Every structure is written in structure tokens, then in C-alpha cells.
Amino acid sequence: MTFVSVFYGWLFYFATFILIGGVARKVYQYWKIPAPLKIPTTPAPLTKRGVVGRLLREVLLFESLFRANKTIWLFAFLFHMALWLVLLRHSRYVVETGIFLNFIQPFGKYASFVMVFGLAGLWVRRIVVDRVRYISSPSDHLMLALLLGIALSGMLMTFVVPTDIVQVKAFFRGLLFFNWHNLPAAPILLVHLFLVAILMLVFPVSKLLHAPGIFFSPTRNQVDNPREKRHIAPWALELEKQNKLYLDEVRRG
Amino acid sequence: MADYEIPKLTGLGYVEVPALEPDSMAGKGPYVAKPEFQKALHFPADFDKGVSEGYELVPDWKNRALEKLDDLRHRYRSLQLYLDICVKCGACTDKCHYFLGTKDPKNMPVARQDLLRKVYRRYFTFAGKYFPKLVGAVDLTEAVVEEWYNYYHQCSQCRRCSVFCPYGIDTAEVSMAGREILDHIGRGSKYNNEIISKVFKIGNNLGLPGLALADTLEGLEEDIEEDTGIKVRLPLDEVGAEVLLVTPSADFFAEPHVDGLIGYAKVFHEAGISWTLSSYASEGANFGLFIGSYENMRRIALRIREAAIQLKVKRIVFGECGHAWRVAYSFLNTLAGPFDFLDPKYPVPQHILEVTWGLIQDGKLVLDKTANDDKVLTFHDSCNVARGSRMGDKPGGQFEYPRNVIKAVCNHFVDMPADTIHDATFCCGGGGGLLTDDLMELRIKGAQPRMEALKYVTDTQGVTHMAAICAICKSQFTKVIPYYGFKMDQIVSVHQLVSNALVLQRQVSVQARPEDENEDR
Ligand code: HEM
Ligand code: SF4
Ligand code: SF4
What we know:
The structure holds two protein chains of two kinds.
Chain A: H1 3-32, H2 48-61, H3 63-68, H4 70-90, H5 99-128, H6 130-135, H7 138-160, H8 165-176, H9 187-202, H10 210-213, H11 218-221, H12 234-241
Helix pairs in contact in A: 1-9, 4-5, 5-7, 7-9
Chain B: H1 35-40, H2 61-75, H3 77-85, H4 97-102, H5 109-124, H6 126-130, H7 132-135, H8 142-151, H9 160-164, H10 171-183, H11 190-201, H12 210-228, E1 243-246, H13 257-271, E2 275-276, H14 294-310, E3 315-318, H15 322-336, E4 350-351, H16 352-361, E5 377-379, H17 383-388, H18 397-409, H19 440-446, H20 448-461, E6 465-468, H21 471-480, E7 491-493, H22 494-501, H23 514-518
Parallel strand pairs in B: 1-2, 1-3, 3-4, 5-6, 6-7
Helix pairs in contact in B: 2-3, 2-10, 3-10, 5-10, 13-22, 14-15, 16-18, 18-22
The complex binds protoporphyrin IX containing FE and iron/sulfur cluster (2 copies).
One iron/sulfur cluster (SF4) binds next to α5, α9 and α10 of chain B.
């Protein structure tokens, strides 16, 4: 085993552990913390099924964003949809390709251009529009730089200096099945993978939490039925049970 | 007049998104509540007047503020989630009426959230603890507290931003949390907290005691009789009535609110529904919402439950008030339920418009639309009704019911531009506990988007009056529209229009007093 292969092997184990563990921890937290009041932004669906529809429209179409701002929507939509295609295409480095994965290969390949276009649009907007510039921290710019870096280094390999992808696949499957193989020591590949590892590491401690988070947003995921069904949080029920008005009078235990 | 400019209306129907004017609304915020009022609301009161004007913060304020923030983020998923997931996309930045009217970047919803988020990040997140500069995290200082106090009192919690945010991030949840934290370190707002303590002491926001209320209602009965020749009752504390009406106390005397109250009375009279007001729960408003205090909001709401039990009513109906209806519709069952002792045939609670529109549909009211022919009407959707509640059994009923009733009692109705009505409605500029004279500049500037829309339909469609179903909207508009060249009496209650058109057929009230029946009629 080369040193580079061992280093990247451990790096990806660590990054995967942080990504999965970190996101799981956050999701568990969002799951556990109650929403004490019914606060769906109305008009809201009257049934659970309606809520599923509302969330699907938000996740797949960015419905609210579309109402808010057509420019952001266009760039955001292109970037995210391209991102999904690219991610799907990448699954061939870990699992065996089937009919579906073969079918989307070309789309995934050219989606990278769309992704770069979307990211660039978002970045230009962040710099040019005074309101968006005002609310941006360095981390907001760096996040876009990171994603652009990943996309551009990836495209270099796809379109300019091809890498030995058979060997890359062997490396990742080796990680999965604890039967390590060498990683090709191509500089662009190493840059690409390093940036991906960083993305995985920052995911659970950054605004990327919006991806799992949207499903927990009370203004979007609550059913509009407060008159029909009583909704109450455990800590609020405690006030009622102990016949108290203020939480600091409630006996805990 | 004041040392600020009144915005000029363009006639375009909307406010152009302004260039940023940093710190144009920097300041000290509204008057601070005295310790005695903090105490009445069970907030810490261990602070005193400072050496210069104003009050000190409580001792050890920094730790106590952080403890409160930590407490709240473990009790409100909205807060924890919304502090985490904003991507700074900027979609909300031009959606707030206060930003549009004041140009202060800290009034952009995301920037308002950031005031709390930057402290949350510093003390409670990995990135903020180790890389504060990178993610814009800052230490909690007195200057930050001052900014919280100032800018969390420049948010009317209208939730317009939450409609447009891709994740539904609701700045109102953040500004409520901000106010709750401030209340725990000696920075309560005088306006809100004095009002709440009046409710606890006397029963309503105005501090109007039972006897005075009885007098007022009797006076109104006389006015109606003079007007129509019929003894329409406005009963107080009548045990055994079918309906308990809970309405904002402004309805008892302010114009045009009181004309709305007369409207409710006539509707109940005509339908033969016995009803009563309560002197114990003589307030529909619930300012506990504005200060983000679940406990105080619940304490106010419980008065309504108690009154309903004591008066042995079968139904609870709310009068025209925006945030009151949000608290009633969305929270009452949570705060003071279950209401299994009431008649299960009716939703608990009901809005007066649900009652009136039901009666109109059933043909129970004789209406003469020409009584309102001197007006061309438009309708202002109140933010809390539009985005935080419903009427009837379909989504969006909160937009249809008031319009249906207006159209049933008026011949001339037009809507304002589409991006200023329904769930995209603009706040009146005085909601969320900001309806106080010490925030006059903010109130005038915040009303600009609505004023532009009103001006547009005035110029293009000859609108003469704007109807509203919220006590705060009505008070705010009557006060600020003169600055924009309109007249106070252009603002009307929806039930005032009903009152004008309703032709009373029932000669004797189902709740007629014995002495009334003896009179020969
Ligand atoms: C459930 C899945 C997801 C949904 C519904 C979603 C939705 C959104 C929306 C609506 C925006 C705001 C518009 C914009 O600025 O682009 C956004 C921003 C963003 N998303 Fe996602 N996203 C998802 C997953 C992801 C993932 C997996 C990543 C990256 C690995 C990602 C990266 C970003 C970034 C970096 C931004 C900020 C763009 C900027 O700086 O303007 N998203 N997302
Ligand atoms: S809730 Fe309303 S007032 Fe507050 S930031 Fe959002 S739009 Fe502005
Ligand atoms: S629209 Fe939502 S995600 Fe975008 S900046 Fe505003 S609060 Fe943040």
C-alpha cells in the first residue's frame, strides 16, 4: 500500500464517520425537541398526506423560493438538480452499475456544466447584490468555492486528463469491504477527493444541515388542524399536570 | 413634526427595493419596562435604574441570557432548527415591510435572525467556538443586547418572510425568542408588559374595570335603540348564554372598532343567538404571544376557559382581531384545552365571520347592500389571520370569509395588487407589540408598502375605504394614514359594514330584560 492510499483510506473512514454520525446526531436532536405550538404558515394542508405533498414540492421544486425570487430559484434549482445527477452517477464507484446507472451516465457527465453554471450564478449574486453581500460571512463564500472546486476538478478528470477509474472503484470498494487497494496517485484526483472529504466533514456543522433540516421545519411540516386535534408538548403538559403557571415552579423529576 | 422623513408614495402600487442604509434605525428601542411589571409577569426583577437614564441589566446578565437561549433552543424546535439551517440565500431580504420602509439592513429578516444566530454560533456550535471569524460568530456584549432590544422591537412577527423562505424559516420565532431572553435580563418592553399586567389585574389591555364596561355596553344599547328603534342587547356576564364572545377591548370604545362590536351584537340579535361578554375575560388580545412567553400567553388564555365554565356557555366566538385569532385558532386548544364541555357541534373557538357568513349563507339575515353604496371598499388581510390561522373548513378560508361577507353587504369591492394580499399581505406596520407612540417613526415607515397598495387602488379604481378585521390594524391605520394623505375614517370594521346593511327583523331580543318586555311595543 502506498502512503497516499493509506492516508486517503483513513481520511474517508473518518469523514464518513463524521458525516453520518454528525448528521444522525442533528437529526435526532431535531426529532427530539418538541414544537410546542402549531405554527404552519397558512394556508396549510389539512391532512398528513397534504403535508407530504407540500414538503415534496419544496424539496423537488423549491416552491417557496420560486414565489420569492426567480433568479435565485433558477440558479439554485439548476445547481441542486445537477448535484443529484452527479451524485447518482458517482454511485458507480461504490456499487455495481445496472441499467439505471448506465442510463444516467451521460446525463450525469454533462450535468456538471449545469452545476458549475448554477454555482457561479449564486456566487455572482452573493457578490453583486448588496443585500446578499451584507448577509454573507466568509464561510458562505468558501462553501461555494469548495463546491466549485470539487466540480471543476471532477470535470478536469472527465474531460481533460482521464484518471484510472477502475482503480478508483477498486479503492472505494476496498474501503467498503475492508480489503484495501491502492489509489492512483494522480494529483487532480487527490485534490478532488480531498475537497470532497472536507465537504463531508463540514456538512454536520454548517448550513448544509438545510438538507435534512427542511423536513423538520414546523412552518412546513405541520398539519393545519389545531381546533380538531389538541397538540401539546411534554414540557407544557407538565405545567397542566402540576397545576402551575410558570416552568420554574414545576417540579422536575 | 418629527425629525424623520415621511416616505413619499410613488403611485406604483409597490415600494422599490431600496439600497441599504446601514444603521438608519439604530437606537435604543422602545421604553423599558419597570421591575414591578417584570415581576407581575414572573420575570426577573433584580435590576434598577442606572446612573444615566434607563435601566441596568440584571446582575450576571450574560450567563443568564445564554442560559435562557440554551433553555429555549431545547424547548422550541423552530428556534434550534432555524438558527442552524439558514443558507443565506437572500430570498427573504426584500420581503419585510420594515426593511422596505426603513432601508436599514438589520431589518432584513435574515439579518434580524443573525443578531441572535451570531451569538448562538459563538457559544453553542463547533464552527463558532473555534472559527468565529469564518462564520460571523461574536461574543455576547452589552452592545449586542442593545441591538437585540432595538431590532427585535422592529419586527411585527408578521411571518411574511416565512412564506418566501425555502425552508419556512420564521423570523417571528426568532424575535419572540429574542424578546423572551431580553425579558429575563431586565429588558422587557414597557408597552407590552404593562398591558399584560393589566390583563392579570383587571381583565383587559385597557384596564377597563367591570363596572365601567357595563356602563359602556349600556350606552351602546341606547345608541342602537336610538338608531333602529330596537333594543339590541350587549349582555355582560349573563350565565347560561349560548355564546361567550371574546373580543379585543378596543372594540369597547375606539373608532371604528366599536362600530364592529355593534355589528356583532346586531348579528347575534337577528339570529336569535343568546350571547354574553365576560368581565373576567374581557380581552381577546393576547400579548403573551408578542413577548414569546408561552407561560404568560397560557395564563391569559386560561381566563377564557374559566369564564366559559363560569358562564356555562356552549360556544366561544372571537371578535375581529388578528393576533387574537391566531392565538385562538392555532393555540387555544393547546394552551387552555380540551374544550370537551362545550357543544361539539361547533369548532372551538369560532370567528365571528364564520358565524356571520354561515348565517348569510343560510339566508338568516336581511341585508340592504345599498346602505354601503357611498363606499368603494378594499380589504386588508391581517398578517396573523392570513398566515397563522384559518376560517371555515378549507385552506385559504381566511381570505374568502371576510371578502364573501363584504361582498354580501356592499356593492363595490376591489382587491389590492396580488402581491400585497392573501398570504403575501403586508403587515399594517403596528403589529407584534409595536403599537406604541415611542415607535412612531417605525410605524409610519413600516406602513409604506400597504399605503402604496392602497394608493394604487384609490387612483385606479376609486377605492374610498379599507376594511380590516384586526384591532391593531385599525388603530395603526387610523393613526398613520393621515401622514400619507388619507383620512382616518377611511378605515372601517367589516362588521361595521354588516351593521350598516343589516335590516333588523326581530323586534324583541331573545335576551330582553324583564323590564324591557313590560314596555308596550
Ligand atoms: C433535501 C435536499 C436539499 C434541498 C431541498 C436543498 C434546497 C436548497 C435551497 C432551496 C437553497 C437556497 C437557494 C440557494 O441559495 O441555492 C439551497 C442552498 C444551498 N444548498 Fe441545498 N438543498 C438540498 C441539499 C443540498 C446538498 C446535499 C448540498 C451540498 C452538498 C447543498 C448545498 C447547498 C449550498 C452550498 C447552498 C447555498 C448556495 C448559496 O450560497 O447561495 N444542498 N439548498
Ligand atoms: S416577521 Fe414580518 S416584521 Fe418580522 S422580519 Fe419577518 S417580515 Fe419582517
Ligand atoms: S430566505 Fe430563509 S434561508 Fe434564505 S436567507 Fe432568508 S431565512 Fe435564510
